[in-house]
Design goal:
Mean pLDDT: 96
Number of helices: 2
Largest sheet: none
Helix content: over 70%
Radius of gyration: 13 Å
Shape: elongated
Structural class: mainly alpha
Length: 57
């Protein structure tokens, strides 16, 4: 898979996690464990995207 395609795939997953975080935070009683996991996964994706962008340039 080309780096640019992988970046787009990861960016889509990052956006999905952002929405999931937003949805969880707007619930009356947000699950803090779930929020922490979602945020950790989102950060991991962001770091992977940044590494791929650095390699592409």
């Amino acid at each position: 898979m080309a780096i640019s395609a992988r970046i787009r795939e990861l960016a889509g997953r990052h956006t999905s996690l952002d929405k999931a975080i937003h949805d969880e935070m707007t619930r009356p009683k947000a699950d803090e464990t779930r929020l922490r996991d979602l945020k950790r996964r989102k950060l991991s994706l962001k770091e992977e995207i940044e590494k791929l962008k650095a390699r592409a340039h």
